[in-house]
Every structure is written in C-alpha cells, then in structure tokens.
Amino acid sequence: MSITINKARRINQLPPYLFAEIDRRKREALARGVDLIDLGIGDPDIPTPAPIVETLIESASKPVNHRYPNSSGLAEFRQAVADWYQKRFNVKLDPAKEVVSLIGSKEGIGNMAVAFVDPGDVVLVASPCYPVYHIGTAFNGGENYFVPLRKENHFLPDLDSIPAEVAKRAKLLWINYPNNPTAAVADQGFFRRVIDFANRNNVIVCHDAAYTEMGFDGYRPASFLEVEGAKEVAIEFHSLSKTFNMTGWRIGMAVGNPKLVEGLAQAKSNLDSGIFQAIQEAGIEALKLGDKIVEPARKIYQERRDILVDGLRAVGLECEKPRATFYVWVAAPKGISSAEFTAKLLEEAGVVTTPGNGFGASGEGYVRFTVCVDKSKLKEVAERIRQVPF
Ligand SMILES: Cc1ncc(COP(=O)(O)O)c(C=O)c1O
C-alpha cells in the first residue's frame, strides 16, 4: 500500500528554477576536475569577526539562553537595533513597537506576505530582484506585477509606467537599494517619489536594505526611513548577514511603521519562536562595534571590485563600477543571451556567474558576478575570459 503524495499547488506552480542548469554544469565541471572560480554566490568569504564569535561562545553557555526566545526578539537586541539606526542613519525608532528581530531577513521578507497579502492582492515588485519578494506573494495567493529595472533609468523602477488601475489595486511595493543584482543605488529624491506614489495609491512600501553598509569610495547609502514621511508608509528589512559576515547565523531585523512591524510580528509569532538568544547577544555585540568591524571588509570588497571591473573592461566587457554591494552587473556581449554567456564563462573559462534572467525576465542580457573570492583569483578571472572568443 502506498498513499498518493501531491505537493501543494503553490509548490507545483513555482517558476522553473533557472539556476538549476548552471548548478548542473558546475557539478559536472567540478567532477571533471576543472579549477572553478566561483563568482556565483553572494556569501561573504571573510569570517565573522572574532568579538562576535567570542560573545556567542560565552552566551551559549548561559542556561537562560537555552529556553524559548521571544519571537519578536530580546528587548536588548531591539534596543541595539534602535541605537544603531540612530547612530548610522539618524533615524529614531521605538524598540518596543518599531523593531522586530528576524531569523535572517529572508524569513521576514517571506512572512511579510503572510501578514499582509490576501488572495487577489497585487504586489508591485521592482525586478530583476531577490526572488523571495514575489515568491512570498505567490505562496499567499497574491498577484505579482513586475516593474522593470532598466539601465536607461539607472535601474530604478519607473513608477509612472505602472497602469493606474494596477497601482490602485496594489497593496505592497518591493524595492531594494543598494540593489541585488544590478548593484544600482538610489538617492533620497527617488525615495521621496516612492513615498508620494505610496500615499497617492495607498501602497505599503517594503524596502530591503540588506546592502546599505557595503558602500565604497566613502559613499554611505541611505536608509529609506531617513526621508520625511517614510515611517507613515514603510517597513525596512535589514540583515546582519552581509554587514558583519554572518550569513550562517540567521539574524536580521525589520523596522519602521509600528502597524507593519506589529503585523509582521503577529504572523511570525504564529510560525516561529525567534532567534537563539545567544545569537541575539552576539548580534548586539556586532551592532555595537558597527563601523569598526565593517570598515575592514568594505576596504577588501572595494579593492576586489576594482580588480574585477578593471579586468572585465580590459577584455571588452561592459559594466559600471558599483558604488555599493559586492555584485557587478555585466552586459552579455551582443547577440548572446544571459544563459549562453553564463554557460560559456563556465565551460570555457571555468568562471561561475549567475545569469541575469534568473532574477527576473528584465535581467535578460546581463550576468551577475560577485567579489566573494580572494583578489588573486579575481585577477585571474579577466585572464581566463580573455582566452574565450565572443
Ligand atoms: C537583496 C537581499 N535581501 C535579502 C537577502 C537575505 O539575507 P539574509 O536572509 O541572510 O538576511 C539577500 C541574500 O542574498 C539579498 O541579496
């Protein structure tokens, strides 16, 4: 006897996983013994700074931390988030009502739709993008409307291009600056236009700020909440992952409008039981140290960015020098698709990248490189690509 096992429609209706083909080719190349340079993943290769690890070790031995945490986060962690926002962005937050801890920002981004998207609701998603924005919508029966990010608009969504009837039906808008995958940045003028759009159309703004600490050449990206009127319409997602080289630890936060924070916290409290308190104590240490530990990583990424961008340009590839993030968004040579370019880079140069269309249809024509490998490897990338005829 066996039962029939069917996955839920929401799983069966997931879009095809465009990275599967590149994953398969990568495995095959590794099995053949190819010495791959992997610029596919956005995961810091630099270890978590020692004071953070030491705090975890000490905190992990305290029995008080062995019990269930509160799903919204320790009061001390939320206070540390508020203090960091005040110091870094000059944004005032009430830690009790305007901050919630997240088990990594991915969790909060997904649960935002659980809290706020009903079947049939429209969610506006600036795309190409981190896929969880639209997967959250789809899992909860909402409808995604993708607003393309195009080079001619500096990879900012053209909000005027959204048909009035779509804008009126929209419940949420997802934006992300500094941006993954395009590495574009936004200024406060753009944020003001977003707030105006949100007020005119009664739309909740969700800003994913995962990369604000990774700005180069002295550039310090803004929080959406720095702009007047933002807290009336917005929630901002942040993460300790990229900022403090803590991707494996799973800790982040959402901050902003108290009703939005409360709604998200309510969804979470029904689904999860928060972050291991010892990790939150390590997170407090990270936030307290702030720039002292971020600056050395920034310098490393900036130097790597220069090596990669200069190398790619020297072999005739077209890309901007990013002002932030550890991504470089490279145009595929004329006449070649994202998938073909990625495959060629892997097969003929042993360089792993991510095809732009994996982040959404408007990413077609681009490939994303990361700088999460040592500079000696990055120097080799251009040399390897030089050997490949395009
Ligand atoms: C734009 C963006 N947002 C959110 C995340 C999720 O980060 P985490 O869940 O580690 O906080 C990522 C991870 O790659 C990302 O690129």
Highlighted features:
390 residues, alpha/beta, seven-stranded mixed beta sheet, four-stranded antiparallel beta sheet, 15 helices, 13 strands, globular, binds pyridoxal-5'-phosphate
Q: Which regions are unreliable across 5 or more consecutive residues at pLDDT < 50? A: none
Note the beta-strand portion: 5-15%
Choose one word for the global shape: globular
Summed over residues and divided by their number, the pLDDT gives a mean of 96
Order of neighbouring strands in the sheet with most strands: 2-8-7-6-5-3-4
Radius of gyration: 21 Å
* Euclidean distance between termini CA atoms: 56 Å
Instruction: Tell me about the largest β-sheet.
Output: 7 strands, mixed
**Into which percent range does the helicity of residues fall?**
40-55%
Task: Identify every distinct bound molecule in the structure, by name, code or SMILES.
Answer: pyridoxal-5'-phosphate
Q: How many DSSP E strands?
A: 13
Describe the fold and architecture.
This protein is an alpha/beta fold. The chain has 15 helices and 13 strands. It has helices spanning 9-12, 20-31, 50-60, 75-89, 105-116, 132-139, 164-169, 188-201, 230-233, 240-243, 258-269, 277-289, 291-314, 338-349, 375-386; strands at 37-38, 99-102, 122-127, 143-148, 170-176, 204-208, 234-239, 252-256, 318-319, 327-331, 351-352, 354-355, 366-370. The strands form 3 sheets. The protein has a 7-stranded mixed beta sheet with strand order 2-8-7-6-5-3-4, sandwiched between helices. Strands 9-10-13-12 form a 4-stranded antiparallel beta sheet. Helix 2 packs parallel to helix 14, helix 3 (50-60) runs antiparallel to helix 12 (277-289) and helix 5 runs parallel beside helix 6 (132-139). It is globular, with a radius of gyration of 21 Å. The protein starts with 8 loop residues before the first helix and ends with a helix. Bound molecules: pyridoxal-5'-phosphate. The site of pyridoxal-5'-phosphate has 13 residues, from helix 5.
